[in-house]
Amino acid sequence: MGTVTWVGLIIITAVVAFFVGAFVTKKQFKQDELKEQAEQAQNALEQYRQDVADHLASTGKLVNKMKENYDQLLSHVEETNQLLLDDKNKVPSEPFFSKETTEQLQASLKEREVDRSSAQAQPADYVSGESGLFAGQDSDSKTVKAS
After folding, report:
1. pLDDT at 143 (0 to 100)
2. b/e map 5-44, b = 16+ CB within 10 Å
3. Burial status of residue 56 (CB atoms within 10 A of its CB: 0-12, 13-18, 19 or more)
């Protein structure tokens, strides 16, 4: 084997070593990149878990606070109800109107027409004829306007 053969063999070996090295380096680079992506995904998952845990803890606190407020409201309603029941039992209920006024109101209700739902019925505050401040002063008002 001559020098040319040895030089050719060295060149071929160098070229093959170059390609094998490039292939191994690319493979190693891809592995490092995948490893980094896996670590980033793991960190993101841990962060998400921490966020969910914080959210659940916050929600738990809010639910407990809402429960306490509900319990306070319920006890307040029970106390108020008890006070109202105690007041009702202590003081006899007094009518709004006196006995005579109530009797007069009931008598006037009986005198009214029973059916007020028809379209022909006059309203309850309708007055037939003259009434009010200007009743019977129609002629006086004309003279006042004329002068």
Report:
1. 53
2. eeeeeeeeeeeeeeeeeeeeeeeeeeeeeeeeeeeeeeee
3. exposed
Measuring CA to CA, which residue among 136, 112, 134, 133 is closest to residue 124?
112
Which of 17, 37, 39 shows the shortest CA–CA distance to 29? 37
What are the counts of helices (DSSP H) followed by strands (DSSP E) for the chain?
3, 0
Q: CA 81 to CA 85: how far, in whole Å?
A: 6
Q: Model pTM?
A: 0.38
Rg of the chain on CA atoms, in Å? 51
- Residues in Cβ contact with 124 at an 8 Å cutoff, skipping those fewer than 6 apart: 112, 116
Locus of tokens 């029941």 = 85
Contact in structure between 94 and 102 (CB atoms under 8 Å): no
Q: What are 46-62's pLDDT values in tens digits? A: 999 999 999 999 999 99
pLDDT at 30: 81
120-147: pLDDT as tens digits: 666 666 666 777 676 666 555 555 555 4
Q: Which of helix, strand or coil describes residue 29?
A: helix
